[in-house]
Structures are given as structure tokens and as C-alpha cells.
UniProtKB/TrEMBL annotation:
It holds the Pfam family BB_PF. InterPro entries: PF_Monalysin, SmlA. This is Monalysin Pore-forming domain-containing protein. PANTHER family: MONALYSIN BETA BARREL PORE-FORMING DOMAIN-CONTAINING PROTEIN-RELATED, SMALL AGGREGATE FORMATION PROTEIN. It comes from the Bacteria. Transmembrane segments: none annotated. It comes from Melittangium boletus DSM 14713. Residues 48-245 form the Monalysin Pore-forming domain.
Length: 268
């Protein structure tokens, strides 16, 4: 690709031409038969930090999802058989359905559900190779004013079940959701060796020896949302729909700050 240079095989991109790089249409892999019926045609709102996410997802009438502004960081992520220098940024948040509970009478009842922590199983089961990331990647949340509510190690490990109890005030049917945070990644030079392991991805050939891999991951946030009368239940997005919407349909609506490569405070 013309006018796009790197300082090394896994180094920083020439920021002078970054606008052209981001605008350039990249190859996309879109699985057949993707269900897009729940996707909102208009773009979801943009939020910044926990406060912004709460404004859209922790209200009396919450949205399905929101875009998330945030810092880009750079560090290693292990995919398939080795570490890859990877740019990471928070990009999206959505509500994942947990449970529904009907209360026929005007009473208060305690209800216990299973809350999740760590990387979502919908993400990890879809990646057809070894995948791991160290807890230090959580500087991406610190720099973006986001807290998962779990420890750094717990946030980026395999999914775990936690017990969560709430009191519901009847009558009515109550719907419980958990907030999921979505991150965009650019794994430099990883496309040829690792691309086939991701159902949804984009790739970009930077030069003859480097083709980058773009994909999304997701982790759970320690935020449970209860929707009850008179608010109607939310039709949740699936992980397939989120990837289709964010990575494929709206690819040109977001980017990375590649200067993180040269910023010691944004490297881990």
C-alpha cells in the first residue's frame, strides 16, 4: 500500500498518512446467514467513561448498546502460538440477557442470579485457537475512565460465575441484564497466521511482510440492569450482531490512536 510505512515489522505506522489508512476499505470476512433483525439502523450514541455508559445503559429505559470513546494502548496478546504486538481500545458496550423473573403479587422477593466475570464465553468459544492476555492490559480501562468492577486479573481471565442477589418489588415480570464491554484490537502482522481463527475480522496488508489482523473481544462489567414494569424488556443483541455492526457495518466510524506505540504510559 502506498504512503504507509512502518518502523519495524510490528512497529508504529506513519501517522502522516493515517487518515488515508483508516479511510481505505479493507478486506472483510462476513459469515453467511448473519441475523441483523435486532440491529438499530441509526448509530448508537457515543459514551465516555463509566459515567457516559451509565447514562445510556443504567437508566429506567436503557438502550440496547452504546459506542464507547477511549484510549488506545499497545502491548502483547497471545494468539495461537505466540505474542503479537497489539493496539487495543474500548469501543462498544451492550446489554446481555441474564434472566427473567415473574412476581404475580404485590410483594418483595429476593432473587439470585448468576453474574459473569472475565472474557465472555461467546468470545472465547468462537476463537479457534489459544488466546490469552495479561492483566496489565487493563491500563486501557484506567486511561478511559472505565472500571469493570472486578480485579484486573479477573476481568481478563476466562469467564467465571458469580452469585448476585437483588430484591424485586412485584407485581410484574422483571428482566435482568449485564453490561458487556467490547474492545477493538489491531494485532500487527498476525493476519496470515491467526486470521482463520476468528469468525469476524478485517485484515490490512501494510507491506510485503506485514498484514495486520483486526478483531473484537468482550469482557463482563460488574453492572446488572433490571428492567421491570412499566418499561418493556430490551431485545438484546447477540455477539454475532455486535461484531457485524461494529467491525463490518461501521468500520469507518472509528479508529485507533497509533501514537500509543511511542507512548510509555500507554504500553503494557
Amino acid at each position: 500500500m502506498e504512503n504507509l510505512t512502518t518502523s519495524s515489522s510490528e512497529g508504529a505506522l506513519d501517522l502522516k498518512r493515517m487518515k488515508d489508512f483508516i479511510a481505505h476499505e479493507r478486506s472483510a470476512i462476513v459469515p453467511a446467514g448473519t441475523n441483523r433483525s435486532n440491529l438499530v439502523a441509526a448509530s448508537y450514541p457515543w459514551a465516555t467513561g463509566d459515567f457516559g455508559i451509565d447514562q445510556y445503559l443504567k437508566t429506567l429505559n436503557p438502550s440496547q448498546a452504546c459506542w464507547v470513546n477511549g484510549e488506545t494502548v499497545y502491548g502483547d496478546i497471545y494468539i495461537t502460538s505466540q505474542n503479537w504486538g497489539t493496539y487495543t481500545r474500548p469501543l462498544f458496550a451492550y446489554l446481555e440477557f441474564v434472566d427473567q423473573y415473574p412476581i404475580p403479587n404485590q410483594v418483595d422477593l429476593q432473587h439470585q442470579v448468576t453474574q459473569k466475570s472475565g472474557l465472555t464465553s461467546s468470545f472465547t468459544t468462537e476463537v479457534k485457537s489459544s488466546y490469552s492476555v495479561g492483566a496489565k492490559i487493563d491500563i486501557v480501562n484506567v486511561g478511559s475512565s472505565i472500571s469493570t468492577g472486578f480485579s484486573q486479573t479477573q476481568s481478563w481471565s476466562q469467564e467465571r460465575d458469580e452469585s448476585w442477589t437483588t430484591t424485586l418489588h412485584g407485581p410484574g415480570t422483571f428482566y435482568i441484564y449485564q453490561v458487556v464491554l467490547v474492545y477493538a484490537h489491531c494485532a500487527t502482522s498476525a493476519a496470515n497466521k491467526c486470521g482463520a481463527n476468528f469468525k469476524y475480522k478485517r485484515t490490512q496488508q501494510v507491506n510485503d511482510w506485514r498484514t495486520d489482523l483486526y478483531y473484537l473481544s468482550a469482557i463482563h462489567k460488574n453492572d446488572m440492569i433490571i428492567v421491570g414494569p412499566p418499561t418493556p424488556p430490551i431485545t438484546p443483541l447477540t455477539w454475532d450482531q455486535v461484531q457485524q455492526y461494529v467491525l463490518i457495518d461501521h468500520w469507518n466510524d472509528w479508529n485507533f490512536d497509533y501514537s500509543a506505540y511511542n507512548d510509555p504510559f500507554r504500553r503494557y
